[in-house]
Design the sequence.
């Protein structure tokens, strides 16, 4: 099935870009968790379009209406459903010629012409808004256990942030930044690159790095419920993600064991790794060090330049010029989405008892 | 849960390296599929150790005994359980000091000292043998539908095979090769690098590329059951995998949309992509082009050089020198494992009807 | 997890009786299924309260708003979310003394005081409205395959309908009846009993029988996905259901094998059972005969008579007199709920290909 | 999928009656649980055939070999696979004419002639042996938490044990009894009835009652993971079960609310029900009172009397006389199976933390 995920928590996502609403149900949050709605709104705002020159000019309020599972500001323990009404849709911007790089081609095969593809339909990046909502709740649940989730722009096009393995205080400093890049010079170059691409009627890809601090050791399982497996399944459900790595990831493939192994030392009378090239996960199980993941986003496929496509009815070649307002680079708005996915994955790996204990203590 | 995976098919893996046996149950294969056991044995042999100077000298027969779900050489449609007895174990090779880069540290946290970690226990690379068995069955099920699975060594350490996007006939030519690298020169250099690492009592990582040809368009779903999500969850359950990418993967992050988008053309009166930078998947759904994935393997963590660790009882630093026979590079033996995982993922994405229809025609 | 169900289709139910809305997501319906909304509304009306003297006087419109997964009157193939706004709530009718026979006692243990129990909260019989909505869609999907679902009142209190194993035309004749009992005399007695109970400020239980005609043989699986297992899991999620039986059910326990076995004969050049004491299911798999199930409903626990309870704060005994408007007998309104559950169970047992094939033919 | 079950724990069952072996994997037991193997063997012996005149004369050792997940007498926390080798098979006893009341008819539809139906294949009652094994482990896990599981013969054919709602000490007294009936007179009559049926070449059905004492309140969830839903799904996977009820079950349908509601009182400074007509479950969630379920078993379908059937090849009527050794009544041997299923269901409803906490205390 397409639209459900999770073991301990269950997500069920729904909606089309130009349908009545999009939304998500989240089942498995503990009861009695006080939810700070202004923090939820801040997370939604980080992802919302129309905020900056680096993003689409579409205005979407992205206000979540919570239909269930909350009472007097706290979770009840039953499924929470949050919905976001759609508006400001320009359905006429979308035609029948499939857009290269989009799901138009594959949706036609999968749904045999019945998908509501207006505005990208169920494949629209807009569907990440419910994920961010669920992630905002997950972050608050994790926060009550001392776990913090961060994200940053690691790369835009060919420009990479030179800072690797940032200290916790650097991560914290990113909070609230519209363009969360650590190194000022490369951050500026990244922004210029995005604006250049916009001017060229083109787009550009990039890499988001996300980190979870305060994760206890011993979460996850070997094999199919490895933290990496659980997280990757939700990461790869984010539109435009084409690669995932944990810790030093693909760089580890180029190393020798003597370089790659994290030496083991003692801290607070507990064994731990002295470095964190493994990204906080060994054998699928958390080490207690920060969990680090990077997500590769392909460039926004909707570009205004003429592109080669074909007409599904006449089966003739067709040149497509996409109108409408599109992000020259999805990466800045994808940072809170990647964070949300990591938060949900960590939450899914927490034994139910962890949250129950927390609940009892409050 | 740790040890089950899948939606349409269900895998349940079990066993410890030095326990009585390892094995897997596979539920969801169609009835009446004739299984060629010598092909199954060939797949097992590709993964088995003790075959070449690039791998460990341990001798493991890896003979699968099928306990259920087969009758007169055909699948019955009920769950198949295959087991592999363990032997040639040298339990004395393993001590209590956690080995850097291994799951020793995290298994102790997760299982609180109760895991059977002899020979790596449930975390041993040996557990990939049942995966290869399940994959061998999956490959035969796919083959009956015209789908073929291939794998190759793309990178060892810093040496990368220069061939990208190989033609089908190149993939086919790899069949049966002990060291399945396409370019002869880089293949030779890779082998030398592995032997050098062995001589230095070190190990080295690498990248496996795996491909599925003949996959029909329209498989998979948006979001949580995207082909990428389904495949990544099983890929990341393979020990030592730290990164996954589909199509051009992380390279797409460095591109502009005008470079990254695959133009759409017409072939056999059907729309298709003219290039395959997306790795045969758009919006989580197959395009009909080959599905391409790359898996980054970290170097084997077991190296004979002295390494920094710590004693979990005395909480004192300890120098560890790992004895025993270990692979200087796991990558050559990991090729059939990656293929098995891709085959299982594709099979899990096939609607039950596809296999049912096939069954009826026979 | 509490609120998700299904293998091939996935349901996710949410909502509290006096919260903003209740609803359900249904994932896994095929694309291109034309939905007759007036039929959906008829199903909703059958369950809705306020319609007859046998039910509560609460007025609930139970209008479903479909938020996703539908386009131009057809399913798109993505998850359908339907919501029903809550209104006409009298929250002051509910106090803190747990009502005997209700979930008040257990919800307090499970959710530790955080559940929104106004109007019964997530445990309210009102939550069966989303089930009926999902069932209405399932019925239409089944109908397109020639499968029909029926339900009838088999027993109210001690009065049982004498008709057993009704012919198809009797089932059909029940369509649209407000009190779907087959035998006129016992039906009248049942109604009198309900009115008597109402007058005595009491309530009464009963049995619903539901049947699926046209179900092809060979659906379901042995063991954990037996049709009985799949159906029972959703049947027992209906509030007030305390017993389930298939075919002759508990009566079979009193029989000898020579009585209980359904003899095998030939019909339309196919083997089939000559009788249907097994309720259309042998070994967990459908025979091709009608699937028959009966659900035992306990009496509505909310009665206006004084009842013994206790105060959870003072831990003193307390006498409870429940105010508010409650059904003297839930059974008539439960008939469409039982039908919905059976429809969803049958749909979940259909191989994906069945619906896909259907789709292709249209 | 057919052969997997569970949320917190996962069962995967496999095997055919006359194949190499039958078995089960159980994933999700906590690590460090000491397993008393002689207790496991006692449970296996209770179910094993060949023990008494009330059962088949087939001799099956039913010795479980544990392949994984155990080390030095304790669970490791990884999946446990237990297998039972098959022997003493008389394959020639089975022909091609489908046996009335058996899965022969439906298996042919489901598996299109490919099932290994020798000895009943995957549908054989023999497959309950792995369930009893898994249940024996579950019972020990529950026992360490103070939860005890019992079972008794409530009814054989038309003879019902007059004792209802037995006190705990009556349940305890049943331990080790070959024919666990409480009332001596009815127990004797039941046994005579079974022997009569055997002499008449017939069989007889019955009802098993199973109970869980010491279950904490607050387990389970409303809707799809109600304790009743979870338990029913596994109960109905037991061959020959055609009805399930909890507490007073179908009798509640005949009651009025004033009779059926369990009054609420105070015990040990906690609210609880004064009676237990609800079977320890309200709103799908445990009350803290014993969980009580009854399972209706149809008569063994294999009887030696001539029966009407048909030849699937010639499509001609055929008279079938079943040879071989079959149980005249499965109910006595089904008691430990029902207990196993209840134990597994309760275990599946326990939050992971419960077992974790337990583990820490040891």
Sequence:
């Amino acid at each position: 099935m397409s639209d459900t995920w999770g073991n301990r928590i269950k997500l069920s996502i729904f909606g089309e870009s130009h349908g009545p609403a999009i939304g998500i149900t989240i089942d498995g949050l503990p009861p009695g968790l006080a939810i700070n709605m202004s923090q939820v709104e801040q997370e939604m705002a980080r992802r919302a379009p129309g905020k900056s020159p680096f993003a689409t000019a579409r205005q979407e309020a992205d206000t979540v209406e919570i239909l269930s599972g909350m009472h007097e500001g706290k979770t009840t323990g039953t499924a929470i459903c949050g919905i976001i009404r759609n508006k400001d849709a320009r359905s006429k911007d979308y035609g029948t010629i499939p857009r290269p790089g989009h799901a138009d081609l594959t949706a036609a095969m999968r749904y045999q012409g019945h998908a509501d593809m207006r505005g990208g339909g169920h494949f629209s990046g807009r569907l990440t808004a419910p994920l961010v909502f669920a992630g905002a709740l997950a972050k608050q649940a994790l926060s009550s256990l001392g776990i913090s989730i961060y994200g940053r722009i690691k790369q835009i096009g060919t420009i990479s942030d030179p800072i690797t393995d940032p200290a916790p205080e650097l991560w914290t400093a990113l909070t609230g930044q519209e363009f969360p890049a650590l190194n000022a010079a490369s951050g500026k170059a990244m922004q210029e690159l995005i604006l250049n691409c916009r001017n060229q009627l083109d787009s550009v890809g990039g890499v988001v790095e996300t980190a979870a601090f305060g994760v206890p050791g011993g979460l996850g399982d070997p094999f199919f419920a490895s933290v990496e497996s659980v997280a990757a399944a939700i990461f790869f459900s984010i539109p435009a993600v084409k690669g995932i790595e944990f810790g030093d990831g693909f760089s580890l493939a180029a190393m020798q064991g003597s370089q790659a192994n994290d030496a083991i030392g003692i801290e607070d009378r507990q064994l731990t790794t002295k470095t964190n090239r493994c990204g906080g996960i060994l054998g699928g199980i958390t080490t207690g060090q920060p969990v680090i993941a990077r997500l590769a986003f392909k460039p926004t496929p909707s570009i205004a330049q003429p592109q080669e496509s074909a007409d599904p009815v006449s089966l003739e070649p067709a040149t497509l010029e996409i109108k409408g307002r599109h992000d020259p680079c999805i990466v800045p708005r994808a940072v809170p989405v990647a964070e949300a996915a990591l938060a949900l994955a960590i939450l899914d790996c927490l034994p139910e008892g962890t949250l129950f204990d927390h609940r009892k203590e409050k």
